[in-house]
Design a protein that fits this description.
Elements (H helix, E strand, L loop, with lengths): L1 H8 L8 H13 L3 E8 L3 E8 L9 E6 L7 E7 L11 E7 L2 E8 L2 H17 L1
Antiparallel strand pairs: 1-2, 2-3, 3-4, 4-6, 5-6
Amino acid sequence: MELEQFIAEWTEDPAEVKPTFLEYKNLLESLEDTKVHFIARPGITFSLRGEKTSQDKRPLFVMVDVIDDDPADRWLSVCFYGETITDPDELGDFVPGGLLGEDGHCFDVDSPDVKDYIAGRIREAHANQ
């Protein structure tokens, strides 16, 4: 319910990231053997976390964050464990200890053309988790 409320109340979107967030949400919900958790930290992030239910080594395989430091101009960051994805176009950033204390690989969704590329990384991380 909290996720639906967040989506409904998200009316200001000058960077037009809400549709991409919704695409990623729908993708995560469509993946087999996956639970989606929503964690709200207003003023910091609103986070979708994809968990593969058949494994218990890690609590998630992807974190889709709506960065909320400026609620009038939100943006998306999508992070993975470093070894679960490839980045052939080198669009992401290596973040040492950046994903729940482990090395992460994060992408800023800053243009429409990276949207599908990142969706491919979500599928890849799911398959490799």
